[in-house]
């Protein structure tokens, strides 16, 4: 398998200029956090994410929470082991958090909100941390939503678990971050993406994000914009 390069933006120490730290993904180390996933499957997962979601990083998490560096709160990445992307400190495997799981973190592709007046107004008033509101030719007003996609310990027997960050539910009009059949949520930011028996072990994280998670975000934005049947099935 070809080496996979990951990148992380950070402010340069001597100025406010944004620079990108690059590293080669350490799959040998990542495999130690992958539960029942074998190396061939991990390589496939990483290769697909590198092709379709090249700005997402492979990190370590506990549910929707990403495990951060104890020294500087930077993100942990698989770079010559598991270490902080900002200060380079190794992850303390003896810490009280227990053993984290593999998780991807990044922003979904732009979602046009030109037709979602309530959402646009709410985001102009207050955009949640780590979310991005913008505008550009060809897209118009758009919104970038960060997600955490975590592998359960028995993956691929069980589905990838995709989580919103807490700030998403503070957007005006959003439902509570609690279990709901109406909005297909488990609570704690986790999307309900598969009905019983729907999950297929050959499904990859990339496919879950493209085919299920993106649609869930669009529906929830429509719900918050006033379309209360956004999750109703269309025959």
Helices, by number, come to: 4
Q: Which of globular, elongated, flat, extended, rod-shaped describes the shape?
A: globular
Strand content: 25-35%
Rg over CA atoms: 18 Å
Q: What are the segments in which pLDDT stays under 50 over at least 5 consecutive residues? A: none
- The helix/strand order is EEHHEEEEEEHEEEEEEH
What count of domains describes the coordinates? 2
Average residue pLDDT = 92
CATH topology of the largest domain: Ubiquitin Conjugating Enzyme
Secondary structure tally: strands:
14
Text of the CATH class of the largest domain? Alpha Beta
How far apart lie the N and C ends? Answer: 43 Å
Q: What structural category characterises the helix and strand content? A: alpha+beta
What's the architecture of the largest domain, going by CATH?
Roll
- Helicity range of the residues? 10-25%
> What does the main sheet amount to?
5 strands, antiparallel
Give the spatial strand order of the biggest sheet.
4-3-7-11-12
